Each structure stands twice: as structure tokens, then as C-alpha cells.
């Protein structure tokens, strides 16, 4: 049976750190669904449609891109899946990730969260940092895929 996992996030925008996690996940799973969470619209720079389009533009064939509104556990149920991928960069990520994984498990005990570590190259990288840099016209071409760098350049 095919092993499929869901990689949820805000992806506002997707970065090379996310892409690194997707590549690592593809060495464990046959297919990945990148799921853009739309519920808590925390001051997002890009619309959900823009984020989905940008992700589609930089991932390979074994990756499907979707968006979900509401709870992650409900999206997983709709898809008939139970595995979630999240990444950990530093210890500071842990509290939030631990809380989220346990909440999801509380909501559905079949849900399992697999944590992957990003490459040390991207330890410092976050979508918020990319936005701040782009907003201030800094060069982000080494931090994000080309289509994202172009989109943010157009935006600002
Ligand atoms: O990239 P982010 O912002 O850390 O991603 C967070 C996301 C979208 C994965 C998370 O907020 C989420 O799963 N939201 C859906 C709502 C939900 O299921 N909440 C219960 C778990 S805390």
C-alpha cells in the first residue's frame, strides 16, 4: 500500500526550508500532500490561491497541493490519511509543535505526527523572515524557489 503523508502549514510563502522537508519526507513516504491551512488568517501576505499556486510551481510529481479550512484532523479524515509531517528547526519550535501534535492526537488518536529536521543550512529560515527581507528589498533568491522570489519582488 502506498504511504502518503500530509505536510500542513501556512506556507506564506513556501521557502527552501519547506522544500528541504518535502524532499526528506519523500524519502520515507511515496507521496506527500502539502496542505495550506486557511483557518487562522494571521495577517497573511499571500492569498491561499497564491500560496497554492507558488507551491505547485516548485514541487515535483509525487506532491499534491491542497488547502483546508478548519481542523487538520478533519482534512486528514476527508483524505483517509493519518500521518502528519512537521519540521523542527530549533528547541524553540518544540512547545508549539508538541502542543499541536498532542491536540491532534486528542482529537483523533490515529493521527501520528512525524517530525523531520531541516538541513542545518535552513535552521535560521522562516517565512516571516523572508517576508521581512522581501519587504525591505533584500535579496531572497537563495532562500526561496525562483517563482517565489519573483512573486515577492512583484508584490513589493
Ligand atoms: O506553518 P504554521 O503556521 O506553523 O502552520 C500551522 C498549521 C496551519 C499547521 C496549524 O495552525 C493547523 O493545523 N491549523 C488548523 C487548525 C487545527 O487543526 N488546530 C488544531 C491543532 S492546534
Structure description:
It is a single chain. The chain has a single domain, classed as Rossmann fold. Helix 2 (48-56) links the parallel strand 2 (31-37) and strand 3 (63-68). It has helices spanning 16-26, 48-56, 72-79, 94-107, 127-135, 146-155, and strands at 4-9, 31-37, 63-68, 83-88, 112-117. It is globular. The protein has six helices and five strands. It is of the alpha/beta class and 156 residues long. A three-stranded parallel sheet has the order 1-2-3, with helices on both faces. The structure holds 4'-phosphopantetheine.
Name of the CATH architecture = 3-Layer(aba) Sandwich
How many helices? The count is 6
Average of pLDDT: 95
**Biggest sheet strand line-up:** 1-2-3
Number of domains: 1
Question: Judging from the principal axes of the Cα atoms, what is the shape?
Answer: globular
The rounded distance between the terminal residues' Cα atoms is 46 Å
Structural class: alpha/beta
The largest sheet, given as strand count, sense and whether it forms a barrel, is: 3 strands, parallel
SSE order, one letter for each helix or strand? EHEHEHEHEHH
In a nutshell, what does this entry contain?
The chain has 156 residues and is an alpha/beta fold.
Primary descriptors:
alpha/beta; 3-stranded parallel β-sheet; Rossmann fold; 156 residues; 39% helix
Question: Topology of this protein?
Answer:
Layout: E1 4-9, H1 16-26, E2 31-37, H2 48-56, E3 63-68, H3 72-79, E4 83-88, H4 94-107, E5 112-117, H5 127-135, H6 146-155
Parallel strand pairs: 1-2, 2-3, 4-5
Bound molecules: 4'-phosphopantetheine.
Amino acid at each position: 500500500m502506498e504511504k502518503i503523508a500530509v505536510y500542513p502549514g501556512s506556507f506564506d510563502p513556501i521557502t527552501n526550508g519547506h522544500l528541504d522537508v518535502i524532499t526528506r519526507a519523500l524519502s520515507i513516504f511515496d507521496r506527500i500532500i502539502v496542505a495550506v491551512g486557511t483557518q487562522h488568517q494571521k495577517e497573511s501576505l499571500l492569498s491561499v490561491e497564491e500560496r497554492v499556486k507558488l507551491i505547485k510551481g516548485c514541487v515535483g510529481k509525487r506532491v499534491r497541493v491542497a488547502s483546508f479550512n478548519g481542523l487538520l484532523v478533519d482534512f486528514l479524515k476527508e483524505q483517509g490519511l493519518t500521518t502528519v509531517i512537521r519540521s523542527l528547526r530549533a528547541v524553540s519550535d518544540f512547545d508549539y509543535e508538541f502542543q499541536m501534535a498532542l491536540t491532534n492526537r486528542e482529537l483523533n488518536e490515529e493521527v501520528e505526527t512525524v517530525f523531520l529536521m531541516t538541513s542545518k543550512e535552513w535552521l535560521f529560515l522562516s517565512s516571516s523572515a523572508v517576508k521581512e527581507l522581501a519587504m525591505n528589498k533584500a535579496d531572497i533568491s537563495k532562500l526561496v524557489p525562483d517563482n517565489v522570489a519573483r512573486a515577492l519582488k512583484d508584490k513589493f
